[in-house]
Design a protein that fits this description.
Blueprint: E1 6-12, E2 15-20, H1 22-25, E3 42-44, E4 55-59, E5 62-66, E6 72-74, H2 77-85, E7 91-94, H3 95-103, E8 108-110, E9 116-117, E10 121-126, H4 133-152
């Protein structure tokens, strides 16, 4: 971090998941990333830059990056998940964003063997030995909540 009085403590890990509404698949089988070319996709764009995020896959040590190629691009993670639930297209997003929809059966997971790690989840705290009890309690709360969420599984 640029401000040397702060440090980032990793409290959890994420995964990139590729998901779709069951009705969108309509009996289609998706076994490899190229199979997504037959389905509509919804891409995520970074609102600050307008840049589209590529899709990432990895299997047996081979990493594949697929360029954005969607009929719809959305700059909100929540709206991206809503678009997938509504059947507008396949999306790739982080596991914790789609966990509830997967558990409820509103989305299905695709290409699980091809999933890649996402960015870590971190809490930014003051550096040094004397971190307040409130900050320590909050960090522990977030860490425990993420562990419970991961233990519940995505679906």
């Amino acid at each position: 971090l640029q401000d040397s009085s702060l440090v980032a403590q990793t409290v959890g890990r994420t995964r990139r998941m590729t998901v779709a509404a069951p009705a969108l698949l309509a009996g289609r089988v998706v076994r490899r990333p190229a199979d997504l070319d037959r389905l509509p996709r919804v891409d995520f764009f970074y609102p600050s830059s307008g840049r589209l995020r590529p899709w990432y896959f990895e299997r047996d040590g081979v990493r594949e990056e697929r360029p954005p190629d969607a009929r719809l691009s959305i700059g909100s993670a929540e709206a991206l998940v809503d678009a997938a639930v509504q059947g507008l297209g396949v999306v790739q997003t982080l596991d914790f964003l789609v966990a509830d929809a997967l558990r409820a059966g509103r989305l299905v997971r695709l290409l699980e063997p091809w999933e890649t790690p996402g960015p870590p989840i971190a809490v930014v705290v003051p550096s040094g030995r004397f971190v307040s009890a409130r900050v320590r309690a909050f960090t522990a709360f977030v860490r425990d909540a993420l562990r419970a969420h991961v233990a519940a599984g995505p679906g």
